[in-house]
Request: fold
Amino acid sequence: MIVVGNTPSIGYAMGMATARTERPLMVIAIGVLYAASGIGLARISNASTTHAAVLAWRLAAWAAGLVLLVAHVAYEQFRVASRPAATALCAALAAALGGLGLAIGASVHSHRPMMLALVIWPVLCGVGAFFAALVGAALLGGMKPNR
Reply:
């Protein structure tokens, strides 16, 4: 950051505004990817003919979610340079949005509204992601170069 007098440079201010506008879009994008990968891999899993294939596709859905979580935490830590708690909050919001998408998908698939799932799934996904992202961000925070 270049400081002229007591005022940060224009580039620094623009960088902060970009991070502020990128963050909500990233949360929404990752949330949609969580839901899409979960629903898509569940459809493939349901079409599988063997129990081993069903398990493999379900593990693939978990792995896709883990990759999205790690990518989101890395983005928050290295691109946005946010604190671990802020990183965890953004990751939790994205996971909760994905959980809501999964609950909506399950309701549509079952042809009946699953009202309890619309509340419980986002909460469970968000809380789990918050703590996982908090630990991940704290570990990645020690790897960032000093600025």
Summary: Helices lie at 10-47, 51-80, 84-110, 115-141.
